[in-house]
Structures are given as structure tokens and as C-alpha cells.
Amino acid sequence: RAGTPARNPFTPEDRRYMYEALALAARAGYRTHPNPQVGCVLVQGGEVVGRGYHRRRGEPHAEALALREAGPRARGATAYVTLEPCAHHGLTPPCADALVAAGVARVVAAMEDPDPRVRGRGFARLRQAGVRVDVGLLAEHAERLNRPWLHYKRTGRPYVLVKVATSLDGRIATRTGESRWISSEAARQEVHQVRDQSDAILIGLGTLLADDPRLTARAVRPGPLAFGWGLPRRLRNAPADAAPEDDPWQPRQPLRIVVDSHARTPSWARLFPAIVAVTPAAPADRIRELEAAGAEMLVLPPGPDGRVDLEALLAELGRREVVSVLAEGGGQLLGALLDRHLADGARLYLSPLFLGGGGAAAVGGEGAAHLAEVPRLARPYTRRLGRDLVVEGDIVYP
Ligand code: AOF
Ligand code: ZN
């Protein structure tokens, strides 16, 4: 134990600069899709000489922007980066080479890049060129910053966030079916910000029939990082706090997806254009009709229960570079995702109301027979929002 501090290569200054790099990265507000959010700060003689963050796919990487700002002052500098510098020729040249060429003396990285094109190769190149490399500073923040992207890179599937807005007794409607509005105005507004930061929204047929939702993001302002629970407030709020002229907030509409085994979606549904996921049991005439209405029909193998195999659906979405999915309901879909261990995170908006017996439950599905088998939040984070209580966190399965 006595030897531990001596092996920690990081100083309080290192922490401060890495924190700054993380705050820069977070400004992107997931606009980097399908890329990660990355920030970089270059420090020379106790002075910041360059800053950068990756804004959008195809635009320069964080390191390239910081090096551009620093110019010749990058020589001998320390680079603080929130992710391992890349080693591949993608849409832009390798950052590891650019750092070497600029004469950077030391690279401090929060974590390794799990992308198969990088995965340690960036560090190896830097070290081969004589650059000192220290990895692991504020890694827990870096993990939370790119929660959906890291999951997507590691599993090939999008990160699935389950959204639930209920009464205190976990219901989404009264016994007569009234459901508008259980959650407060503030919570409903936040949901638009979450949609705006999600690549796709998933609903079941029941919800479509009950609500006929548009599922668009009608967010007027950028919000805090939707998938960033556990981050310090300053990092999580970075997109909202970034000056608009600094990073213009372009509206982005998520893909809309309905899980509808037998293609019962009405052709007048308001959410079109959308993807409708069906099984081979769906009638051909309905498929043609929905295609004419603006649907992309995705015929997937049926799962064990005869309905759309959600695992196959997520695998297909992963192939299409969907990094994050917001599952908005209803109870059957959310229950099926939990039953099959496919829900990765949850956000609950709890309104201080009791709807009582007879009101529909927010989560259905098969459910657990024993407490030892239930999914739970690894660590629930809570906060107040208007009159509601928000509970969010990563789901773990036994
Ligand atoms: C970095 N700095 O700022 C980012 C990195 O399509 P490309 O060429 O932009 O490459 C995307 C990949 O590069 C992405 O999957 C991730 O591994 C890495 N992103 N790397 O050094 C950055 N955005
Ligand atoms: Zn790069």
C-alpha cells in the first residue's frame, strides 16, 4: 500500500488538464455519431497552447485541432487526450503520427480506444517514437462520457436506454386508460433532449396504437448528455453550456422504429417515415401498404415466442451504425428487453402520484420468478426534475 502513490504517474495538474479535455469532449453532445466524443488539451510550460474536440464525423479529430492551434509550441508539450490517439487512416490521418511529427513529448490518455483499428496501436506508435505515454487518468469519467459508443464498439450492438415515466406505484395510466400527462412539463421537455441525442427510438405496436406518437425531437435547446449519468455536473452539462456560436446545435432526428410482428401498424400513423420490424408471419399486402406509407420493412426471424427477435433487431441496427437506442415503451417491449437482457440502462421519471390498482404497469414481459434473478441498476443515480424524481443508471443482470 505504501508503494502505491509512487507508481501513480499523475499530478494534480495532470488531473486538471484532463478534466478540461473531458469538458471539451463533452461539448459535442453526441453529434460525433458514429464516432466517440474526444477532447484534447496541449500544455507547454504550464500554459495551455492548444485545445480541440471532435465535433462531427469527417471533421478533424481532437488532437489535430489542438495541434493546429498550438503550431510550433507543440514541441516538447504534453497532450491530454480523453481517448487513445488513433493509429489508422480513416477519414482523417492518424493522430498518433501527428503528435509525433509535432514533437509532443508526453501523452496522457484517459483510456484505450476499443476500436479494432486502434486498440493499443496508437500508444505503441507513440512509445516507439520515444513519446512518454501515461494511461488511465480519470478513466471512469471517460467511460461515462462515451457510454453508448464504448458499448457499441465492444458488443456490436447499440446501447439500449429504457425510458419509463410512471406514478410512484409504477403505472403509466389510470384504470380507465388516462395517461396524459403523468410526468411534469420539465420531464417531458427533457425527453425531447434525450431523443435529440439518441440515434433511434424504439416502440412497440401497443404504444403506437394507444398514443400515435410522432417520436420527433422537438428540443429547442441542447441538453445535458443524455447517457452521461455519474459524470460531474460540469461535464454532463457541457453541451448545454457551450456557446451556440462555438458549436452550432443542428437538430438531429432519431430513426423511428416500431416492433410489430404481424405488421398491424396503421398506414396513417404519424411517426412515418419509420422502420417497421416484422416477422415472416406478416401478411405481404400489409407490408406493401406500409412501404407505400413511408415505412422501411425489416423482416426478421421470430424469437422463441414467435415475435420479432429483439436480439436480431439490435444486431441489424448495430450493422447500420446505430450507436444508441431509446426504448420508450410500452410495457411489453420494455419487459421483453429486460427478460432477454438487452436493456443496458434505464431512466425513470417518477411522478409523485398514486394511480392505484387497474392502471397499466410500465414494465410487463415475463418478469422474474425469484429475487435472485432480477435485473437491477448497478448504481442508481437520482435527481429532482420539476416535481418529479429521476432515477437512472446502468442495468446489470445476475
Ligand atoms: C482520435 N481522436 O478525436 C477521435 C478518434 O472515421 P474517422 O477517421 O474519423 O475515425 C473514427 C475512429 O477514430 C473512431 O472509431 C475512433 O476509434 C477514433 N476516434 N480518435 O484519436 C478523435 N474522434
Ligand atoms: Zn485521431
Gyration radius, rounded:
23 Å
> What's the N-to-C terminus distance?
32 Å
Q: Overall mean pLDDT score?
A: 94
Structural class: alpha/beta
Helix coverage percent of residues? 25-40%
Number of DSSP helices?
14
Oligomer: single chain
List its salient traits.
14 helices, alpha/beta, binds ligand AOF, riboflavin biosynthesis, 10-stranded mixed sheet, 5-stranded mixed sheet, binds zinc ion, CMP_dCMP_dom, 15 strands
Walk me through this protein's architecture.
This protein has 398 residues and is α/β, with parallel strands linked by helices. It has helices at 4-7, 12-26, 62-70, 95-101, 121-128, 139-145, 147-155, 185-196, 205-211, 233-236, 238-241, 284-292, 310-319, 331-339; strands at residues 39-44, 47-53, 78-81, 106-109, 132-135, 159-167, 200-204, 255-259, 274-278, 295-299, 324-329, 345-351, 376-377, 381-385, 388-396. The protein is 29% helix and 21% strand. Strands 6, 7, 8, 9, 10, 11, 12, 13, 14 and 15 form a 10-stranded mixed sheet that branches. The mean pLDDT is 94. The structure holds ligand AOF and zinc ion. The site of ligand AOF has 17 residues, from helix 3.
List strands and helices in order, with pairings.
Layout: H1 4-7, H2 12-26, E1 39-44, E2 47-53, H3 62-70, E3 78-81, H4 95-101, E4 106-109, H5 121-128, E5 132-135, H6 139-145, H7 147-155, E6 159-167, H8 185-196, E7 200-204, H9 205-211, H10 233-236, H11 238-241, E8 255-259, E9 274-278, H12 284-292, E10 295-299, H13 310-319, E11 324-329, H14 331-339, E12 345-351, E13 376-377, E14 381-385, E15 388-396
Parallel strand pairs: 3-4, 4-5, 6-11, 6-12, 7-8, 7-11, 8-9, 9-10
Antiparallel strand pairs: 1-2, 1-3, 12-15, 13-15, 14-15
Helix pairs in contact: 4-5
Ligand AOF binds at residues 35-36, 38, 54, 61-63, 83, 85-86, 90-92, 95, 113, 115, 118.
